């Protein structure tokens, strides 16, 4: 349930930063950095451990560790509680303590890497591909971009347009999947068509090979239209 898990740094990077910090604080310190594959790690199995550093919010976790140690026949650890440093610049929607969750929140809307300078990419029109799963916020972001002056191309709407009678993929789809996919008025029944291709990779590829190039062509047409309108 971590906030923005996809922005958490890889274990190797986090371990390297921790190692650098420990060496900077006290080079003579002996330490082991280990990945945690469960909520407890070595704290409930290592007989050489004597103390566990906790904060007020992790005290229950420390008590759970000691309970596990007793079950494993090991002595309890001393729970040494420290105060967490407060972030004087935390926003209203952020935690009061210095927190990696807050740092990940601040990364939203920032460039994680500089734009790639590719001479093959024209400076105009500048095309942004907006992708994401259902409910990920594509519509909201597109609305904001539209308010800023962007020309919006909705690939979902184009995907519906290619199927309509007279549309660029209509005849090919009917020829490939049969008249049984048609409604009485001659329109393609998307549910019937979907049932034909669902779970059948070969049929699905046959459909996408017909439809996707037509959608791409329509997108390119709209990009040229946007360019002509400036």
Question: How would you describe the overall organization of this protein?
Answer:
This protein is mainly alpha-helical and 230 residues long. It has two domains: 5-85, Rossmann fold (3-Layer(aba) Sandwich); 138-229, Rossmann fold, CATH 3.40.50. It has helices at 11-25, 59-71, 100-107, 138-147, 155-161, 170-177, 190-197, 201-228, and strands at 51-54, 78-81. Strands 1-2 form a two-stranded parallel sheet. α2 links the parallel β1 (51-54) and β2. The protein is elongated, with a radius of gyration of 28 Å. The mean pLDDT is 90.
Summarize the structure.
This protein has 230 residues and is mainly alpha-helical.
Mind summarizing the main beta sheet?
2 strands, parallel
Here the CATH topology of the largest domain equals Rossmann fold
What coarse outline follows from CA principal-axis ratios?
elongated
CATH architecture of the largest domain: 3-Layer(aba) Sandwich
The proportion of strand residues reads under 5%
| CATH superfamily annotation of the largest domain | P-loop containing nucleotide triphosphate hydrolases
CATH class category label of the largest domain: Alpha Beta
Question: What is the total domain count?
Answer: 2
Number of strands: 2
Discrete helix count: 8
Give the helix level as a range of percent: 40-55%
Placed side by side, the strands forming the largest sheet appear as 1-2
Low-confidence stretches: none
Rg over C-alpha atoms, rounded to the nearest angstrom: 28 Å
Distance between the termini: 45 Å
Q: Give the helix/strand class.
A: mainly alpha
Assembly state (oligomeric):
single chain
Q: Could you give the order of the helices and strands?
A: HEHEHHHHHH
Pfam families: CoaE
Protein name: COASY synthase
Keywords: ATP-binding, Nucleotide-binding
GO molecular function: ATP binding; dephospho-CoA kinase activity; pantetheine-phosphate adenylyltransferase activity
């Amino acid at each position: 349930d971590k906030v923005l898990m996809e922005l958490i740094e890889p274990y190797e990077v986090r371990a390297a930063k921790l190692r650098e910090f420990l060496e900077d604080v006290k080079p003579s310190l002996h330490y082991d950095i280990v990945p945690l594959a469960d909520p407890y790690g070595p704290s409930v199995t290592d007989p050489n451990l004597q103390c566990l550093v906790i904060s007020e919010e992790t005290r229950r976790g420390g008590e759970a560790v000691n309970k596990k140690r007793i079950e494993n026949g090991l002595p309890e650890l001393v729970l040494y509680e420290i105060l967490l440093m407060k972030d004087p610049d935390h926003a209203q929607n952020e935690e009061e303590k210095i927190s990696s969750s807050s740092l990940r929140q601040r990364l939203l809307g920032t460039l994680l890497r500089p734009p790639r300078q590719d001479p093959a990419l024209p400076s105009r029109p500048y095309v942004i591909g907006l992708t994401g799963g259902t409910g990920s916020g594509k519509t909201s972001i597109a609305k904001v971009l539209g308010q800023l002056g962007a020309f919006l191309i909705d690939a979902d709407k184009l995907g519906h347009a290619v199927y309509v009678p007279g549309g660029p993929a209509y005849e090919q789809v009917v020829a490939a999947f049969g008249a049984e996919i048609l409604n009485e008025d001659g329109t393609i029944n998307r549910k019937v068509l979907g049932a034909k291709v669902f779970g059948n990779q070969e049929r699905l590829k046959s459909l996408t090979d017909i439809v996707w190039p037509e959608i791409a062509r329509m997108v390119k047409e709209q990009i040229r239209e946007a360019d002509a309108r400036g």
